[in-house]
Amino acid sequence: MNRFPCNPTESRAYWSRRNDMKLAALPIALLLSCTGVQETPEAGWKDLFNGKDLDGWVTKGSAVWRVEDGVIAGGQDGDPKRSGVLITKDEYKDFELALEFMIDEHGKYNSGIYIRNDPGSTGQSTYQINIGRAAAGEFCGGIVLRKPKGIEWLAKGDEKDAVRKPLEWNSMRVQAKGAHLTVTLNGVKIVDVVEPDPPARNLQKGVISFQTYGAEGHAGFVKFRKLRIR
Question: Which pTM was predicted?
Answer without folding.
Answer: 0.80
